[in-house]
Amino acid sequence: MPSPQQRPKAASAEDRRFEAAYFGTDPRELSLTLPTGHTVTANTDGCLASAQRDLYGDQKRWFEAEVVVNNLRAEAQTRMGTDPEHRAAMARWERCTGHSSKTRPNQPDPAVTDRCNRESGLAEVESRLEPTLLAKVRTERREQLTAYRQLRTIALQRAVNLTSATQAPQGPGRRTEPTTDLGSAEPKGHHPS
């Protein structure tokens, strides 16, 4: 039984009101089942949905592109699990640790895990397979990646325009333009159900 510190705390009424306002309360109208088998859902009401429509224009298209892009690595890892060489290395790893991949303890001993990753060859197999599989998944999901980049660019321009329109002039005829950095970070916000 979890200790009191480990038990999730019940959400307060204020937390529930905030979540309803932010995430929405309607049944989850947007849904996408990924090749990994997980289904991701989202509402079309609430502040988040409203902001997505304002910035991206097409919330459904953004939702689908974002969910696919955020799960490219998970899709590649799922495919890795079907590779015979990976399955053999995983079997060696399980023998080494004494745990199957389905019954791993919540807090495995890091020293044992590291030793078994090396001895089983699992780390080497994964480091070799993952880049190839990820490149293949990205090629297959090219349309979603393109939509993601296009919609993100549109959203960035809309956000710049919104912030520029709300900023007061800085002296005679001068405005301070906001700076943005898209970086390589991928947005979060949708969770598998």
Q: Can you lay out the helices and strands and say which pair or pack?
A:
Elements: H1 13-23, E1 30-33, E2 39-42, H2 47-56, H3 59-70, H4 72-80, H5 84-97, H6 110-120, H7 122-140, H8 142-166
Antiparallel strand pairs: 1-2
Helix pairs in contact: 3-8, 4-7, 5-6, 5-7
What summary fits the major beta sheet? 2 strands, antiparallel
Low-confidence stretches: 178-193
Radius of gyration: 22 Å
Mean pLDDT over the residues: 83
**Basic shape:** extended
Structural class: mainly alpha
**What is the helical fraction, as a range of percent?**
55-70%
Describe this structure in words.
The protein has 193 residues and is mainly alpha-helical. It has a domain at 28-161. It has 8 helices and 2 strands. The chain has helices at residues 13-23, 47-56, 59-70, 72-80, 84-97, 110-120, 122-140, 142-166; strands spanning 30-33, 39-42. Strands 1-2 form a two-stranded antiparallel sheet. A hairpin with a 5-residue loop joins β1 (30-33) and β2 (39-42). The longest helix is centred in the last third of the chain and has 25 residues, at 142-166. The relative contact order is 0.12. Residues 178-193 have low confidence and may be disordered. Residues 162-193 are annotated as: Disordered.
Concise account of the structure shown:
This protein has helices at 13-23, 47-56, 59-70, 72-80, 84-97, 110-120, 122-140, 142-166, and strands at residues 30-33, 39-42. It has 193 residues and is mainly α.
